[in-house]
Amino acid sequence: MSGPAEDEKLRVQQLRALRRRWLRDQELSPREPVLPPRRLGPVAAFWESFVRPGDPWRLQVHKFYQAGRFVMLRVLLPAWAITYYLKYHVRKTPHGVVMTNPRIFPGDRILETGEIMPPLRDEHHQHH
């Protein structure tokens, strides 16, 4: 005779066996993981062949990259930040901003061209 206790024991035993099998299936074999072959685009293929480990070009490219990074981070960006701060927060008038132009009246001489401003025409229009 089988009762509820025996059915429960059988169910627990089957679950334990399934868990054990599942855990064994999670272990990787020496052949795993199976990855697809690596396909490179044209630019990546060029760099892969151009800068191989141990190649003298790789050292030169790395030095050039390090120098460019140093100049950008340690020279250009701080210089830009300082210039921006001085230009817009310290100076009273920003560079290139003209507050007022000198007034020019008829008969005045224009300094840049040497011309004399002609007198204004009398305009007779029909508006009020």
Automatic annotation (TrEMBL):
- Topology in the membrane? Single-pass membrane protein
What keywords sit in the KW lines?
Acetylation, Electron transport, Membrane, Mitochondrion, Mitochondrion inner membrane, Respiratory chain, Transmembrane, Transmembrane helix, Transport
What's the superkingdom here? Eukaryota
Record-level GO BP terms: mitochondrial electron transport, NADH to ubiquinone
Q: Does the keyword Transport apply?
A: yes
InterPro entries the record matches = NADH_DH_b-subcmplx_su6 (IPR019174)
Q: Where does this protein reside within or beyond the cell?
A: Mitochondrion inner membrane
Q: Which Pfam families match?
A: NDUF_B6
**Subunit annotation:** Complex I is composed of 45 different subunits.
Task: Write out the function statement from the record.
Answer: Accessory subunit of the mitochondrial membrane respiratory chain NADH dehydrogenase (Complex I), that is believed not to be involved in catalysis. Complex I functions in the transfer of electrons from NADH to the respiratory chain. The immediate electron acceptor for the enzyme is believed to be ubiquinone.
Q: What family name appears in the similarity comment?
A: Belongs to the complex I NDUFB6 subunit family.
The protein here is known as NADH dehydrogenase [ubiquinone] 1 beta subcomplex subunit 6
